[in-house]
Specification:
two-stranded antiparallel ribbon, 49% helix, alpha+beta, 5 strands, elongated
């Protein structure tokens, strides 16, 4: 279901304004952009994801991604924690994001409601979109 919504949105380049979004508990409006972030986080709800990783997964620039993450965090859907700084690391500390248990439920509901709304916009003809192939297909 998550891949269906994101795939449809990406294939049509649907804007958040065009979709109107879906109002959800916690005052998060699930727009196309929010759905892309939620879909990336739902790929493995127990995994910690950092900003650059999410930017790559969603193809969003930082100026789009981080405000969405802030809204999700403020609503209690996502928790964010800084990693412990490593004095030997040649990079700055990362901030990791993960869906909260409530966020997992809300994200699935929000993405499902958006999919339902998109299905209605398509005249009830849901378009099945296959998930993207893995970037790391594993051993041959």
């Amino acid at each position: 279901m998550t891949g269906d919504v994101v795939g449809y949105v990406e294939s049509r380049h649907v804007s958040d304004t065009e979709l109107g979004g879906v109002a959800m508990a916690g005052d998060v409006r699930v727009t196309a952009g929010v759905a892309k972030v939620l879909a990336a986080l739902l790929e493995d709800p127990t995994a910690d994801r950092y900003g650059l990783d999410l930017m790559r997964a969603t193809a969003m620039p930082s100026g789009t991604l981080y405000p969405i993450l802030t809204r999700l965090r403020d609503a209690g859907w996502v928790r964010a924690e800084w990693e412990q700084p490593d004095p030997d690391a040649s990079r700055p500390a990362r901030r990791y994001y993960r869906l909260t248990p409530e966020g997992v439920v809300a994200a699935r509901e929000g993405v499902a409601e958006l999919a339902e709304k998109l299905g209605g916009a398509m005249g009830g003809r849901g378009r099945r979109v296959l998930p993207r192939p893995s970037a790391n297909p594993g051993p041959a």
